[in-house]
Amino acid sequence: MTLVLIVEDNPINRDVLGRRLERRGFAIRFAEDGPEGIAAAKALKPDVILMDIGLGEMDGYEATRTIKADHDTAGIPVIALTASAFESDRAKALAAGCDDFDTKPVDLPRLLGKIEAALGQTLS
């Protein structure tokens, strides 16, 4: 089963996205902020991380840079999630080490396609 780590500070967003992905057969774990997301990435070694960008003290960019700088977690695909849809935000996310970028509210079929691409496999 594919393990997805959702790093999201908004409890409603965590709950809604987590439930939608669980119904699609994913195992879900959550982290509420950047430092917790970094620790969870190291401990859980998820198959993919969905990283909110607006996380507070340590934003998703910094958390992603830290995850990608660690030899143990560098290979985990990270997909940035943000309500800001500007091309500059996408470029900043990719520069921070994110493998892909998507906007909120989440379009589930589009996000599933990005997860599939990040994993390099077809999801059933």
Residue-averaged pLDDT: 94
Strand content: 15-25%
CATH superfamily: Response regulator
**Number of DSSP strand runs:** 5
How many domains make up the coordinates?
1
- CATH class, named Alpha Beta
Class of secondary structure makeup: alpha/beta
Q: Which regions are unreliable across 5 or more consecutive residues at pLDDT < 50?
A: none
How far do the termini sit from each other?
A: 11 Å
Could you describe the 3D structure shown?
The protein has 124 residues and is of the alpha/beta class. It has one domain: Response regulator (Rossmann fold), CATH 3.40.50.2300. 44% of the residues lie in helices and 19% in strands. It is built from five helices and five strands; from the N terminus they run βαβαβαβαβα. It has helices spanning 11-23, 34-44, 60-69, 87-95, 108-119; strands spanning 3-7, 27-31, 48-52, 78-82, 100-103. It has a five-stranded parallel sheet, sandwiched between helices. Helix 3 links the parallel strand 3 and strand 4 (78-82). The protein is globular. The N and C termini lie close together (11 Å). The model has no long low-confidence stretch (mean pLDDT 94).
